[in-house]
Amino acid sequence: GGGGGGGSRRSAGTLLTGYQVSAAAFTWHAGTGESPAHDPLTRTYASGDGPRVNPFFRALYRDTASALSGLFAREHTAQVDPPERERREEDFSEARLKLLYCSPTMELGVDISSLNAVMMRNVPPTPANYAQRSGRAGRSGQPALVTTYCATGNSHDQYYFRNSRLMVAGSVAPPRLDLANEDLVASHLQAIWLAEAGLKLGRSIPEVIDIGYAEGSDRPEPALELHDHIAAALHDAHAQTRAMEAAHQVLGELLPAFAETTWWDDSWIEQRVRSAGTEFDKAFDRWRDLFRAALDDQCIQNKRVLDHQLSERDRSFAVARRKEAETQLNLLKNEVPGSRSVLSDFNPYRYLASEGWLPGYSFPRLPIAAYIPTAGRGFGEGDYLQRPRFVAISEFGPGALVYHEGSRYLVARVQLPPSSSGSIVTSEARRCEHCGYHHKADDGTDRCEMCGEPLTTTHGLLQLHTVFTQRRERISSDEEERRRAGFRLVTSYQFSKKSLRSGRRDAVLADPTGPFATLSYGDSATIRVTNLGRVRAKADEPDGFWLDAGDGRWMTERDAAEAYGDSSEMPLVDADGNEKRQKARVIPYVEDRRNILVVTLDTPLDEPVARSLMYALERGIEAAFELEDSELTSELLPPDDGPRKRFLFTEAAEGGAGVLRRLQSEPGAVARAARTALGICHFGAHGEDLATADTERPCARGCYDCLLTFSNQPSHATIDRHSIRDLLLRLTTVEARTAGRDESRSEQMQRLVGEAEEPVSGRERDFLGFLKERGLRLPEAARPWIPEARARPDYVFRLPGVKVAVFIDGSAQDRPAAAGGSAHDRPAGVDSSSHDRPAAADGSAQEHPAAAATERDDDAEERLYAAGWEVVRFRHGDDWDETVARHARYFGPGDAR
Fold it and tell me: Which domain of life is it from (predicted)?
């Protein structure tokens, strides 16, 4: 063949010339299969002989392939449209479709009597799953073949391959669910309220939300408010009363278990029922954002279609974008062929389950959606592909490749949050580089509340919402490999502060020789995963990705070089007068709530040892408590350099399996997991090595039977089972000793009244009742003496980075109850008798007239400011609701009313 294009470059004075050969000039012939193909550009071999011939694949291509010619398969998953899924089931049952690849959608409820073979790609999570999946075959009494493949790179599979009796003949354990998880209980409570309110949500969200808007405006701006009859039902006091009564009946047997948690107090049910209507409305905010974005795009592209000054190419692009926006609107309105009813992601009930407002069970909670424009079907058709957030942060990351229904799609742009300024709305947060703890940027602290170390701030954070893809017909193998390399993900965590308490419970892990570690458990803790960039990014490249501020498209380095800075710069125009694209560098992140366990070792370990111990404990927990490997994740926490002392374990399932709670609360749970881990690492009960070189299955530092898995491949070189043998042996003898729990709000109320350093007056108890009734933060102490300011405020709050003193002026009879001072709003049982204020400055208990007390409070306020305190005054005649709203940073947001 002739030379295509030539090129040259100079190197040390030498002119080098290269040629590109046209691929059409080659003729390809089948080889004999006896000698291997050697490509020195992709791989070299020390011997020079090249790769060996694999006889299995040689036989597959020579013989088996011809027999399989014409055989085709289809997938059966929740992402396939229900009508199409039903057609595939029918074709499969009639043998027109010979092979069906299924997710667990086929595990229950699908009965094909003639099915005679089931092949499981991996070992199921539990014997119960195995029984369900294998039971699909042979239902008419005919013989059936059940084949289970055990992946060598999956430690879960390898464990059951060596102990198959536990799977095929094991007892079916009852389902595990953490019934005391606050999010799970709240979703069921809200379902009770929905039933008592008598709301019928229909089959589409427009039956709940009014999508109408005024005609004639430049752009459609629908308010997207609830329909009047829905909004009226949200505030039905009788429905709330019925819901409270029903909830007490349904949850009555679980109340003792709730009382042992960090989130429960005796008014929790009433507070959640009162706020259920507001939370119901807020749950539709994601749908509102999707709908507004699609409607806005439809309007913009329609104007471009009608603009005859555009080139034919640009108009064609606008037509395609308009059709895509219309398809999105039809999906959001559930107006698609077949209507998909309750199986649609945008059926109101299923949507509320995905938002976590209703019980979701198998649905992904708080998902990230990717719009797939064609999904391999006709022009203009599309669908939303949904993934859990912690999967989506990488699978739907900038420029990531998504494979769906046999086609390849590129994540091209992201839905931008609305902004009145027209710029990208980003945020900042603080993460402790010593323990990984997460802090909001506005919490007023410069030191970590977990470990006390200084914090670092990350700017330009963009919360990942819906992404949009475009089909990629062709992509080079090099580009595909670069994109598959993945992203640099960083995890931070924060114990729940819902119910205005830390949501953290500690236990000390110790044996007779002393403490080993501290276990810090938190249910519904906040987990944030941040995408800092690609794994194969340049060494000097800053964190984040370039984003087009106009349409949310991810930009290449070339595009970014031609764009201009941020919204603070003047727009730039090119030589033709066209305005250049505006860019911003952003760092995508996602957040969700999970049950977590932070293990803090008393003695830090070298990083390889710590990592080996973490993987061993993860494997031991999974095997001892029958968890699938995807149900539990673990990672080492910072610092990133030097010895490590903290592990983070996270339960992936919604509501959690309750295993991490057991590890913290049950004295022998960790020892049980350690004993199992010791066996998995090929050690006997006394530490003897059972996998030496002279045994049937020798293991040196680690193998796929013990600690190595496909997911931890980057750590294989450092994992060493021998380095943790003594640690595991010690862990088999430890016990967890709980270190108490946070007070309930009722207990805190009693302490504030009963343990105050000076007597609490009636108006001060009235104030406590006001805070408790509205779900606001209760103070830490009542009437304490502050030596550095020589002051005795009524209450104090000690929050991260700030100390707050509260003074309440005036007498109880002058106090405005709630917003207007009516006796009806006063909390039951609160003493409203009039008392003069005790002295506020010198600590004496002598009574003073109100005016004198106010004057003393003014003096004390100045001294407190000088000592670094913040002061909040509730003066006579103030509206208490307004005052706490102005200081929500101190009192919390309270319950929606």
Answer: Bacteria
